[in-house]
Design brief:
The chain has one domain: Orthogonal Bundle (Non-ribosomal Peptide Synthetase Peptidyl Carrier Protein, Chain A), CATH 1.10.1200.10. Helix 1 crosses helix 2 and helix 1 crosses helix 4. The protein starts with a helix and ends with a helix. It is mainly alpha-helical.
Length: 82
């Protein structure tokens, strides 16, 4: 699965957790999950769980510390699925 395919699968997951003050048009590969998209820490855990289910991967605590934007998520998914 290439980066664009992963992003296309990630986008609806992220969109489902956006607060009212964030627009889904703001979702880009460089979007910071908490700062730009305003996903709070409780919802971030739900996002991670949904991503793990969707891609059949498991993130460690060390992995979670590296996840700032969608490019980070994409890189980690690629590393765990290849």
């Amino acid at each position: 699965m290439n980066s664009d395919e992963i992003f296309n699968k990630l986008e609806p997951i992220i969109r489902g957790y956006l607060p009212d003050d964030a627009k889904d048009t703001e979702i880009t590969r460089n979007s910071d999950l908490t700062q730009e998209l305003n996903i709070n820490s409780a919802h971030l855990i739900d996002v991670i769980l949904d991503i793990e289910d969707a891609f059949g991967v498991e993130f460690s605590n060390d992995d979670l510390e590296k996840l700032r934007n969608l490019d980070d998520v994409i890189a980690l998914i690629k590393a765990k699925t290849t």
